[in-house]
Design goal:
four-stranded mixed sheet; 203 residues; 58% helix; alpha+beta; globular
Length: 203
């Protein structure tokens, strides 16, 4: 299989973390898929018309794209158990969507700085995205710590990748240190960042 990727992408990191957990990184060849909304990578577009990464090209079927599709495919392929069965799956999927929503907002903040000329940037727009991140972090502190401390699942991995991206793009994103006022999440995040699959995928 081939994975179109870019090292800084938090969505690619989610996929790579699953491969690390499964011990199957050798099954996937990494292809540079660096892209931008205004200048999509032609090779990526050929596999994924939306032009976004990650994109997994398989030998025995159509390409898969969107990190949540790819991670679930890899979980099914390798039996990592990151997506539980029964009623528990809805909690896992909700937490993964929660983390990805924070990432979506963070990327929009970054794109506003990287892709728009300074005179065209909207402070109101950026403030709205930062507010989404703040609410998401507050919810993790208030509602999700018990789940995060439990068995590893894809929601937990997604949260770890989201927190890592907030650190990675802190200066550009301008959202402040996510640890402030969130001692439980800060303690969990520090411990989770030391897990081997997180250290191996750190951008």
């Amino acid at each position: 299989m081939q994975l179109f990727h870019a090292g800084p992408s938090p969505y690619v990191r989610k996929v790579m973390a699953v491969l690390e957990i499964a011990g199957k990184t050798g099954d996937v060849a990494l292809i540079d898929g660096a892209t931008a909304p205004s200048a999509p990578n032609p090779a990526v577009v050929a596999a994924n018309p939306i032009g976004k990464i990650p994109c997994l090209v398989r030998d025995d079927g159509p390409a898969l794209y969107d990190s949540r599709v790819i991670t679930r495919y890899l979980d099914a392929l390798y039996g990592t158990g990151l997506y539980p069965s029964g009623e528990a799956i809805w909690t896992t999927l909700t937490l993964e969507a929660h983390a990805d929503g924070m990432l979506d907002a963070a990327l929009l903040c970054v794109y506003e700085v990287r892709m728009r000329e300074e005179g065209l940037r909207s402070a109101e727009w950026v403030a709205g995205q930062r507010a989404k991140i703040g609410r998401g972090l507050d919810a993790l502190e208030a509602r999700w710590l018990a789940h995060l401390a439990g068995p590893l699942d894809m929601g937990t991995v997604a949260v770890g990748c989201a927190l890592g991206y907030l650190d990675f793009r802190l200066e550009m994103g301008g959202w402040g240190d996510w640890r402030e006022g969130r001692p439980g999440l800060a303690a969990w995040g520090a411990k989770f960042a030391e897990q081997p699959w997180m250290r191996a995928t750190n951008p």
